Amino acid sequence: MRYKVYPDRLKLYSSAVVPKSRYETELQRIRNLHPSMPLWMNRSTRSIKLEWATHTMLYNLGLWIDKTADVDLEYEPRWYKKLAYWAVGAIALSVIK
What is the DSSP string of the chain? Predict the structure, then answer.
């Protein structure tokens, strides 16, 4: 999986085509390469997976394809994004493959 580390986020390219069964493996691989990235200190693995799953579900539904094909995992998302990913992500994790 291709990715890029930015000062405020981690961008996962073509993340919508990665099966959810590989989410933890891919995140752990990146974490091993970048252990001091603020993402790991500020967010739980579950919150990251919920955001990723939300993007994947929206992509699979054909919504905002240009924005949902990749996922930008902000180190410190705003409260309303956390709430949205918590609510929608729980559904997304149960319906995506």
Answer: --EEE-SSEEEETTGGGS-GGGHHHHHHHHHHH-TT-HHHHHS-HHHHHHHHHHHHHHHHTTSSHHHHSSEEEESS--HHHHHHHHHHHHHHHHH--
pTM: 0.96
Which residues have a Cβ under 8 Å from the Cβ of 69 and sit 6 or more positions away? 14, 15, 16, 59
Structural domain including 47 reads 3-95
Total of domains in the chain: 1
Q: How much is the pLDDT for 29?
A: 98
